[in-house]
Structure formats: structure tokens, C-alpha cells
Amino acid sequence: MHPLLILPLAPLLLLQGLYVRKVTPRLPEPPGPRSGEIGQGRNLRLLILGDSAAAGVGAETQTQALSGQLIRKLSGSYRVSWQLWAANGRNSAQCLHLLEQTPAETFDAVLISLGVNDVTGGVSLATWLDHQLRLSQLLGSKFAAQRILFTALPPMHHFPALPQPLRGVLGARAKQFNRALLAFVATRSNCRLLHFDAPMQAEFMAADGFHPSTVTYGLWAEQAAEALIAAD
User: Fold this and answer.
1) Distance between CA 40 and CA 164 in Å, rounded?
2) With 93 labelled, which of 46, 129, 135, 139 sits at a CA distance of 20 to 30 A?
3) Angle in degrees, 0-180, between the axes of helices 10-23 and 166-185, rounded to the nearest 10
4) The overall pTM is greater than 0.85
């Protein structure tokens, strides 16, 4: 959506954003392990990196969240040594700072979930793309990642927690980010973009109407595992 079209809506969008923050339940990050080893076969050093969805918000435990379901699906093909570096509210700039401050180690593959907090935080498309470039460069140089799988932003225009017109505006920005991210990964030999579609019915959303449910984490994990194996 063009900025000139959004400008008249700015006061309403601000009020709706404040209202959503006030009334939406703040779900906790689920308890459970954030690193470990599982499976048999060739070694796979895996990093799961990003925001509240990567951290599993909406699931009761990490076993039911993205990390737990993903490593189980990969464990049939690999001996997975994995780590989860994710936090509620984290955006791309914060994730980049984390990588810059963390001592170097080696990962064969990285699954990234970022973008929703950049969209809701009003980060410009140009700034966001620069952060994705720097993230991919740092993961490749400092952490030796050979496979980087970016997850597309979810369909925010369907999020039940968001009222209109805020839902439409944020959804349009999420689509814009996804188009740019698809073009970006096409320029990077070690990067791929994962699109996965889950219906926006109740069973596919957490209680806050904003995060994935356990069912959706399962779909995400299945398709991420397939993409990581195919890229090997």
C-alpha cells in the first residue's frame, strides 16, 4: 500500500495498534530444551533463529513447538545437533546484534523466522532487506552456514487479532516484504525461501489470534525439514 494512502489512516492505525497491544494476551515462550542432539546418521548442526514464532509461542512446550517438531522430523535422516536462538519480540536488527555478539561456531543449516516485528515496528523495506543481507553474510562467514532457510512472513491480512484497517495495512506490508525476500534469496546461493500455507481457522492459531498453534508448527516443521533435506 502506498504511503500516501496510509497517511490519512495514521491516527486510526496508531489507536488500533495500541488497542491490540492492550487486549491481546501475551503468551509466554514455552518451557523446554533449547539445544541438544537427536537421531542417527550423518551429522547436521542446526540453528533455529528468530522471533516469538521461532521460540514456539503458542505451544505448551518446546517439544510441541517448531524446534521440537523439526528436529524429530530431521532425526530420521541425520544426527541433529541443534540450538534455538529466539525470543519474543525480536526483530531483524536485534537478531543481527545477537549474532555479532555471539562467539563463532559452525552450523550446517539455519532456519530463520523474522519479519513480523519489523512490519509492526514500522521498519522500512530497504532497512529490512539490508538486515537480511547482513544476517546471511554473517551466518555464512562467522558461522559457516551452508544452507540458510528464510521463512516467509505469515499472512498477516488474515490474523484474527488485528482489526481492520490495521490488518489490511500490515498484511500488505508483509506481502511486500515477502516479494522482496524472494528476490533477495535468488541472489544468494546458500539461501532459500520457505513458503508454507496454513488455514486461518481456529485450530491453526494460538489463543492470542497472532501466533501459530501446535498444528501449524507441525506443518511448518514438516515443510522446513523437506526443504533442508532437499538442499543438502
Assistant:
1) 49
2) 46
3) 90
4) yes
